[in-house]
Amino acid sequence: MTAPIEDRLTDLEVRLSFLDSTVQTLDATVANQDRALTEMRRALERLRDELVGLQVAGTDARDEPPPPHY
Fold first, then answer.
1. Are 60 and 54 in contact (CB under 8 A)?
2. Can you tell me the distance from the alpha carbon of 14 to that of 25, in angstroms, rounded to the nearest whole number?
3. Residue 60: which residues within 8 A CB-CB, separation 6 or more?
4. pLDDT tens across 2-19, in order?
5. CA angle 46, 50, 56 (to 5 degrees)
6. What contacts 54, CB < 8 A, 6 or more positions away?
7. What's the pTM value of the predicted model, to 2 decimals?
8. Buried/exposed 12-49: b ≥16 CB within 10 Å, e otherwise
9. What single DSSP character describes residue 61?
10. What is the mean pLDDT of residues 23-38?
């Protein structure tokens, strides 16, 4: 009667090991995505600041005359 309990325990240990590996992989993935998202937010802020700077300086592209080939 001890064999089925040992088999069940072994099965649970295998499953726990798999779940632990999966959680570690997911944690690394989430950390990488968080870093990428942070970098994208910073890039967006830089672009917004640059756009505001261009608009304040009066160099709005809509104010430029069309190129000569139009």
1. yes
2. 17
3. 54
4. 689 999 999 999 999 999
5. 145
6. 60
7. 0.61
8. eeeeeeeeeeeeeeeeeeeeeeeeeeeeeeeeeeeeee
9. G
10. 98
Helix (H, G, I), strand (E, B) or coil at 1: coil
Running DSSP on this structure, what letter comes out for residue 59?
-
- Amino acid in the structure at residue 44: L
d(CA 61, CA 67): 12
The first and second tokens of residue 66, run together, are 């069309």
Torsion of CA 9, 11, 16, 19, to 10 degrees: -170
Phi, psi dihedrals of residue 2, rounded to the nearest 5°: -75, -25
Residue at 69: amino acid letter: H
- 8: its two tokens: 């069940």
